[in-house]
Every structure is written in structure tokens, then in C-alpha cells.
Amino acid sequence: MSLVKPTYLLFYSFLIWFIAFVTVPAKYINLGDSLFYPLATLFVYNILFVIGSASIKSVQRKDHFISPQKKKQIILIFFLIGFIGVIIRIYQRVYLQEIYFAEDLVRTRMDLMATEGNSGLLGVISALTYPFSTIALMLSIIWNKSINRFFLMPLLILGLYPFIDSFLTESRLLIVFVGCMLFITILASKISFFKSFTQFKLKGIRLFKLPTIFRRKRFYFPIIILFVGFIVFSKNVVNNRLATFGYRDTLSVWEFYHDTEIEEGFKKEVRNASSVEEKNQLIGTYSLKHYFCHSVFEYIRLVNHLDSTTGYYYGVYEYYTFIKPFKFLGIPIVSFSELNKVSLKAAVYTTFWGPFYIDFGIFGFLISFLLGRFSKRMYLKAKNGSESAILLYSFIAVIILASFFVNFSMGGNLYFLFAIFVGILFIKFWPNNIVITK
Length: 438
Hints:
By secondary structure, the chain is mainly alpha-helical.
């Protein structure tokens, strides 16, 4: 079993951001009145998270027996719930939203985002249920010895539905989120060919370790192909969106909207591109670097823009996804658009801590310390083989790894957290000895 510590994940997140920062050919401007206070809060959030994580040295190991029968039943129940959710989601996408294979996918997506909260009861049901298919796949990875191999293919197809949906709707973040959760689950599993690991070190400091089998060509070639394929897909998404809006000078538009000064040398390189394909390649690469890099600067702008330093909504902003369904019970709930009016810009990322600062302000310092402790506890319990902790840590780890670019604990991702919580309840309370007869 090989899991990466929370503090290491945070370091890798910063490292990815830093590489994007030093290579993006642009300077971020109009950051606001102060650099010190926003950067100080960002530093304190992260350092308190690290201190909180370091304060947990060990956890009590609690071994509990889960019968093979119980494992199969939980996976089957989650598979069926997920199947219902996927069918409803496909029906929505094809017949109601008409987004699959839409002639103008970009504008269709924009129209759907503009009608926030109007997905109806079917939308709520599908959002709550389709993530169970992925959790069923994660449980089948953890309990791989209890799974009938003929059942594995339906589990795989259904569990990977978020990939299919994201591909057809040109949504990149969900691919990364679900893919990383599944990868972390695999690393934490007891699959036999993942028992030998290779350590990667830098000047004697252990950075991480990966299954030795990943060094074999039959494994790392497909991984490289998938990675390159995702990069190409991401660039195509950018190019399709640019084509929809018909910008003649894309970089000038981005300079205005992103508040940047793009280097003249890069602009000249784009202007002198020998073909449309080369121009798209250059612009797509720049967009990816900006995608990883801009969040810290948007965090600075956000903190400088906000009047309150002690927070506004105390969890409602980040976890609005859990509150929104109460609208269907007739309870008056303010729209997310109303909550978002305190933000400086829409459609930008402000690291994990941007929405966190909106909710809690400097009161979040204590919460970040507690989050560090909680993350380390889940990491240690997952290392000890706790199935519940593996599910939860797979979610937490992705959030930490992406924390310098985006807050993954918001929006639709929280439906996966809901399914994980339900999974934990089933693991804890579903009896070992229920017999299902035909």
C-alpha cells in the first residue's frame, strides 16, 4: 500500500503551480492595493494546515471484519443506485438539455449554466445518485478479491461514466477529479501487483513512491498516451471555445479579461506561426499554463476586493451544493449567484483558499489547522487498511493536490462526497450476515 502524505501533496500542488508560474509568458497586473495581506493569509492557511498535519503522529488501529457477502451486497446496492443515476443523467443530457452532440456545445453549456437551479427534480436525483457508480468501482478495487470477474466490466463501464460525460460535454475538471480518486484508491488497495514499490528521492529526501510495475512499458506507455491525450483534449476544448466567440486577437482579449501583460516575444511568435495548427498549439499551451497559474493572483485580487476579513457565509458558499436541494421542499434558499456577488470575478479560480476565505476569513486559520489534523488521521487510517478512510482520503487527497489551482470541494464534486458518506454508513452498519435468496 502506497499513499502520499497530505503535506507532500500540498508541496506537489505548489510545485506544479510554481512551474506554471515561471514558464507562463505573462505578467499578472492590477492585483489590488496590497500584496502582503493576501499572501500572508495564504501562507498562514497553508502553514497551519502543515502544522496540523504534523501534530498527528499515529492513530489507533481498529480491525473489523467485513464478510465477503457484505462486500458484494454493498457494491451491488451502490451499482444499482449509480445505474439509475446514470440512466437519468443520460436522458437529461440527450432529451432535456440536448448537450450531447450539440451543434454549438459551448453556447449550450453557457445556456445551461445561466439557468442555475432549473434542472428540476430529475436533475437533483441524477446528481445525487450517479456518483454511486464511481464509488461502487472504488469499493470493487478495494475489495477486488470479493468481486466476480464477470461483474467487473459493468462496474468499470458504469464507474467511468463521468469520463464519458466529461468528454461529450468538454469538461476537463471532472476527468481529473475522478481519475485521481480512482488512482489513489488503486494505490491504497491490496491488489497483488501493486505490492512492490519504487521510491523517488531528491537529495536523500523521499518524495513519493509508485508501484514498480509502472516502470514496465506495458503500463507506462498507456499512462503516457492517456496523459498526452488529455493535454490534446484540453487544448481542443480551448480552441473550440475560442472559435465559438470568434476572437480575432485572442491574446489581447485575454490580456484584458485576465489582467495580464503577455510578453511581446510570445505575441510575435503567435503572429508568425506558419499554420493555424501551430498557432492553436501555442495558444492552447499558454492557456494551460495560465489555467494552473492564475489562481494565486486571483486570490490576491479577491482578498483585496473583499471588505470583510472575518468571512461572509460560514460554509454556505462552499457547500451550497448540499443546501440547494432544499429548494424543492419549498424552503426559500438564496441562489448561488446572489452569494457570488461578493466575488470580484466570475469563472476564475482562486485556489482552494479563495472560497474558504469568502466563507470564514481569518476565522478559517483554526479550521485550516483542524483540516490538517483530519487529513493526516484519514491518511494514517487509510494506510492501516480502513475501507472508509480510503474512500474519504481519496477525496481529500485530490483536493489537497489541486489546492493551489482550484477548490475541488465545491459544486458537483460534493455529490461524490455524499456518496462516500453513504458508503461509510453502509460499511459501518450493514450487517455481515444478511442472506439474499432468489
